[in-house]
Amino acid sequence: MRYVPNTEDEVRTMLERIGVPSLESLFSRIPARLRLDRPLALPRGAGEQEVLGALEALARRNACLDTHRYFLGAGVYPHFIPTAIDALASRSEFYTSYTPYQPEISQGTLQTIFEWQTMIAGLTGLDVANASMYDGASATAEAALMAMRVTRRPKVVVSAGLHPHTREVLETYLDGPGGKIVAAARGPDGRSEGVGALVDDETACVIVQNPSFFGVIEDVGDAAKSAHACGALAIVTVPEALSLALLRAPGALGADIVCGEAQSFGVPMSFGGPHLGFLAARERHVRQMPGRLVGETVDARGKRGFVLTLSTREQHIRRDRATSNICTNQGLMLLRATIYLALLGARGLRELAVQNLALAEYARSRIRATPGLELPFSAPVFNEFVVRVADSAPAALARALEAGIVGGLDLAPFAEDLGPAILVCTTELVSRADIDALVAALAGDPR
Amino acid sequence: MRYVPNTEDEVRTMLERIGVPSLESLFSRIPARLRLDRPLALPRGAGEQEVLGALEALARRNACLDTHRYFLGAGVYPHFIPTAIDALASRSEFYTSYTPYQPEISQGTLQTIFEWQTMIAGLTGLDVANASMYDGASATAEAALMAMRVTRRPKVVVSAGLHPHTREVLETYLDGPGGKIVAAARGPDGRSEGVGALVDDETACVIVQNPSFFGVIEDVGDAAKSAHACGALAIVTVPEALSLALLRAPGALGADIVCGEAQSFGVPMSFGGPHLGFLAARERHVRQMPGRLVGETVDARGKRGFVLTLSTREQHIRRDRATSNICTNQGLMLLRATIYLALLGARGLRELAVQNLALAEYARSRIRATPGLELPFSAPVFNEFVVRVADSAPAALARALEAGIVGGLDLAPFAEDLGPAILVCTTELVSRADIDALVAALAGDPR
Amino acid sequence: MTDAPAPQDRDSTTAVHRVGNAARGVSYEEPLLFERSRPGRVGFELRELDVPAVDPAEVLGEAAIRSEVAGLPELSEVEVVRHFTRISTWNYAVDLGPYPLGSCTMKYNPKLNEVASRLPGFANAHPLQPEALSQGLLALIHELEQHLAEVSGMDRVSLQPAAGAQGELAGIMMIRAYHEQRGDRRSKVLIPDSAHGTNPASAALNGYDTVSVPSGPDGLLHPSAVAAAMSEDVAALMLTNPNTLGLFEEHIVEICEIVHAKGGLVYGDGANLNAILGIARPGDLGIDVMHFNLHKTFSTPHGGGGPGAGPVGVKHLLAPHLPVPVVRRQDESEGGGFTLDYEFPRSIGRLHGNFGNVGMLVRALAYIRSLGPAGLRRCAEMAVVNANYLLARLAEEYPPATRGHVMHECVLTDRRLEAHGVTTLDVAKRLIDHGYHPPTIYFPLIVPGALMIEPTESESLEGLDRLADALLDIAREAREEPERVRGAPHHTRLARLDETRAARRPILRWQPAGSE
Amino acid sequence: MTDAPAPQDRDSTTAVHRVGNAARGVSYEEPLLFERSRPGRVGFELRELDVPAVDPAEVLGEAAIRSEVAGLPELSEVEVVRHFTRISTWNYAVDLGPYPLGSCTMKYNPKLNEVASRLPGFANAHPLQPEALSQGLLALIHELEQHLAEVSGMDRVSLQPAAGAQGELAGIMMIRAYHEQRGDRRSKVLIPDSAHGTNPASAALNGYDTVSVPSGPDGLLHPSAVAAAMSEDVAALMLTNPNTLGLFEEHIVEICEIVHAKGGLVYGDGANLNAILGIARPGDLGIDVMHFNLHKTFSTPHGGGGPGAGPVGVKHLLAPHLPVPVVRRQDESEGGGFTLDYEFPRSIGRLHGNFGNVGMLVRALAYIRSLGPAGLRRCAEMAVVNANYLLARLAEEYPPATRGHVMHECVLTDRRLEAHGVTTLDVAKRLIDHGYHPPTIYFPLIVPGALMIEPTESESLEGLDRLADALLDIAREAREEPERVRGAPHHTRLARLDETRAARRPILRWQPAGSE
Ligand SMILES: Cc1ncc(COP(=O)(O)O)c(C=O)c1O
Ligand SMILES: Cc1ncc(COP(=O)(O)O)c(C=O)c1O
Questions:
Q1: CATH top-level class for B83-341?
Q2: Helical pair C135-152 and C358-394, crossing angle rounded to 10 deg
């Protein structure tokens, strides 16, 4: 076995030193009747050429960015990934190391996390960000639980455009601790309506997804005000982190916790994971935050260094009193995102966000001008929006597919009331020609 | 520009410190009339997404191992490349460093070269190997020049099956120094004939390619004896280094210099380069060897370390008296090959060679059994051999291509006398089914 | 920051030049990204826009947009590359040497797995693209579920949880759903005192009260202790087998019977599955639900803290409660192929925005395909031999917390060093000078001064000997030169870090000098 | 090898912990592969053979085959990965910091280029596959030829030479072919005394006698010196512009005229092209033939000593002699597309088994496409500003070999350190402790104690300042504590290596202990 160095000779030497006659005898504490008396029923082991060949065959059976043009977002965004990210994140000092429990030989990871925390604090407009959560959905659930701990209240009000999957995860997480979820209605312009009316003194938090599942930009400030008026926390969950480069920082609009998904920052779509949940909060709530935090300190010679800190919040110290059970998080994705943000920088990220906006505006203008297609919502959007088609969404998407385009998400399972509607996303990976082709296909104009 | 850090502000600061008013003035030593008064006529600069997109489009216009099955060798061999090689050779400590002139901060490269030298010495059966040559062809030319220096004779006798490209490179290199090349004839079994008769006391060396261009295994011992009888050196050039794992070491058969191409050891085909020329010799000729050598030494504290050595042979010291003009060589390819050989090890390499042999034997047995196909040569082969087809080689290869197979090399431009003949190579990348498909296609049996 | 050596450095160099597996070398300094930032630098250039440019203020309204992006630096590509290359060299890693962190199973991460996970058809596929366009990935998920079920002896597996702790959460949720569906509201979960912190945290996060069950003096969980704590208010017992002392829970069958007899279920923490691969299966021992840590047992890299993957396996009785969606192989009548099934009314619901950490699943499948049944078993055997060999070599100087042979890891103590004022922490730090990552320390909590060593099967006999030599050398040094051990590490770029200070006045982000 | 610290190490630790850009850190020891080898280990497993197995002795004859493969170790994959990961950390690299090696142009190697070169359609294509299946690669070669011609002002370019020295060889061969075809047998090549060693070596390898032409006291080649050496027996003058002192050869036009007037040709060594990209073109200066070092000017990585690529560019008069094959764009009448043309009867022939180092060509094209005309010019400008800035900061302590401004590199000397017994070599070694790769030393040969510094455009102002601070700090130290400089490096895993010993009794391969 190529992954196991010891030879039979060496095993014999070791058994001798241990003082047992055979390998078997090391397992003698496992009662014989509990031991498996046959080999596992698995495919036989194989060399690299065979295994890779088999996996390549599986990989070829999926559409991907290399075979199709994607207008599909809905929480997972196709973006260009700068080449330096793979080069750096493939350094085995990063990817084959563990959680930085021993700071003297983990400063590479620790400094990266500290840089990430700083960047996310800046992007969200809050004080403290943690070292990642599993994904945007569980980050949102953890944010709700955090608000419940802070306020000792059970009720969670959510915006109309909370991603249905995030909503489901929230339900799953809140079931045990006894949380109650109430959702605002969607107004005619696509935004949430009447959040304020739902908030009461049982309410732990208001969660606004921004941009919403339907792509529209919500009135975060208003929601935050409603929450604060009743002593609840305002949580903003951001599905497309790139929007933070353009939209007013949620912290500046009153959000107490900002969480979401940062897959857009240099993390491959990878059929949905691993992605990168983030969570930021105000300093006063730091001791209720879930997840790891890295802090600055000095070494015995007075030199600056970084360590995991405030770990008394965490399960390995606090056990059943911990703020969360999270242990392994999404460290390597955090590294990728930190490199991404360093490469693009303040200007580049902003410029990219504006490009995404411009592409969406162009697409929307083409759609407006195309008979048979409609934009049901009037509220402004970032890089994603709903299109209503004349015939049926599956038929329209099938036409797009014929043109080599994954045209968006059929909204039927998520919002039947919208009629034949498709959620379309435009990132920098699509060109004007792609947009024209999509619009033609959705409209039924055969190209 | 993403690759250039300085900003306009910083340039101003620097110009001030330098004491010049403008960038222009730093170029004032270039007479104005010699300066270009227009921008270069090149495509405008572009970001990664655009450049990569354009190059991907070019890449897709080539057939490759990912789109076709290859039976094409002829000096460049399709082999499986273990995944660890890319992972390790992509470490920037290796690929973004220079020639190890400063040994204290280049031990990674130096130790690797020392390991390579040891491996090649072992594989060739000689004492000393150098730190690579540009490719097998130029390594062969350098070996001939070395023999001319050692013997102070001008004539070079080559075997019948010297690769035509190697032969051309040899001619190019020997033209200036006034070398004369004489080639042996090809006997009916495919091997060289009458080498001995061509060797005389003007002869610097006999060069035998083994396996030959036609895939057959030459009688190296006999050629070496003929060479030595006249005081000439025996050179063996090896186009498929994997054969060294199976065939008797050329050094053991009397070769004084063994050179060739080690692309098979983990180096991608890459449309012909960068590949990996190697050259090994006996200790007594070391001072006439071209190329870099690494030697063992100790540091000031007595610890073992490695340095470039015997550099008085080289151009940077000896200038016009150098043994070669080579400076930059194929270092990174040497690293890949060293990793490859470390992974496969003595047993793995041998086993792989035997697999290649078995595939060739199977293919030959199928061909023998197929009406219309013929094996013109009876001498034993390693993993490559000539097939004669019934109709025409281009037609046969076109049929193979229809089946997704790059079927081999049409020998018409190289050996017209063979009739419609194809040079076919079988490595571990082809399966029994592939071979069956090839044989069927060559025979004209439509699949 | 100035480049001149700090004065105290001049005097701090009593270190020897070389020790054990390592020597002193050059380490590169590197400030924070923000400190390298200069206005106007760019590390990336965007594509040219081929649609009309827009003014965001006009499109979105001035009030909706921010005037500047805070928190991000400006750097050229070369600076970014150097920054991360340089700081990467400050990390220890499995690819550099043994990483004997008990409970973490820091085995070798095969390069093949990395290549496989990056294949465009995996890495560049969207989770919401039509099923017909995702058959390869759905087949992969389905196959891995089958394999994990076979390895564990469980009936069904869901790959959705993103890490072990989320797998625990899923498991406990299913247990809750199971009881509730039977109208049986229970409030407690039993957890041995040797358990990992995620166990009680996962139970608590689910609204359960946790009850700690004491381990016996032999480090094992005893039926009597479980029986004493067990009641009809107990939803489940969570246990880890082999346990965190590296011992196989010999009474597992009896314990499961006790729990089951009172209507409870048994949760198995699979973090230590590596020790019994192909030798025993949790499902055969009486476990009802368990998680796997693919980033431990199945070789996916730990990535400096993740991502992992924590699939959860269940017996039939819990299958109706598995998270949705579930990948199902369609009958021929349905057209064959794989589909996503959401129709599980008694499911605990969704745990992840998509299907979990799919990139990790690809790696795990590559690993299982590479090893096969014989290879997996060989891993377990070698992990166990290696642990016992280290134990044999170290037991005298570092008295073990348990008696007799262990499974894949051993827990040693600093008992014999106490007299010299040297602690487990000091030994750990000194091991760094020898070129090793320290073992897990002070865990499990029930062992004072624990040094928990898990070599894994990736280490060779001579590699273990060198590690043992280093630890023995430190023990000797603790007697002869204890202050040298207490002052460790000496060779690292940074000396021992002040963790107390970090927690006392937390500095959790960089701020420009003078900004606060 | 034992793990115990060597006794002398105990006393060798007067080093400070941190100096300049670097600090002391842990460096990992690692023996040779052969010393790690154990019989029976495997690092790779082959596919299963699906054709009948053969006995090689039977197929090939016992006499033809070897009984065992010598020289190769046996290791597991994890050991191989660790071995190379560990020893990689002993290298300095551009990705770690400035690499101011004069003449080598160690600029940043963009990651994009690496990705592009690995695209399967490039990396996995065979050079002999049918042209119709290689149109993308042939188009790429053709495009790069065009771009290099435009950048250099030459008429035609061949990408075949594998490195600069082979480009020189090709150039000199074409010069020979040119003269011979005119029935003009010439025997000499003029080469300035400041030239790189490959120049005389390439000329000599081609059967020419070389004549060294002295540089003037200002470091420039003077028309008078060339005129004095020029004759009708001189085939060519080889010159480097900017030259190896970092100066632009101001008299280039006059010099070319002198050479041309006597029927000679002018070869331009393009190693320093980086300094004049987009600013001046060798072809416009009178150069007849030149090589490019894509691994210098066009950012392809140096790979620890290669591979490079050394395309050769010529004026029309030499075009008939270009190496074969030549990529040609077919007329529409021929069906368009690209083809390989071998029909050049006056070609010098083939220099490479295939088309040269194609993987490097892909990288160079990616670079040119990334930068465009403005970016290339910017590189030259920044390379020149950076060199002059360093010169300005260092001139006082390290008196330069030349007067006034320089182009892309500057040559300094150890003149002021002499009094303290400190040499250029000592400065170079001490710079290693500061975390830098030393400059090129003792080249050009005409400058005693030369320190040849080429920062390239990849460095930033503050990066240059840190480097200058380090060099100034060393100059100060040379006065105050010269023995400390002479004993450098102090922080590296290995101290200064004994190069004399290596050459005196060469040990060029590993042999098992006791085997000799
Ligand atoms: C015994 C045990 N259980 C559970 C966990 C939690 O797993 P994860 O980190 O994947 O969430 C760990 C992780 O270290 C562990 O060691
Ligand atoms: C001035 C000069 N000319 C020629 C060369 C030779 O180029 P290469 O190393 O690519 O063969 C070099 C390489 O360092 C050089 O600096």
A1: alpha beta
A2: 30
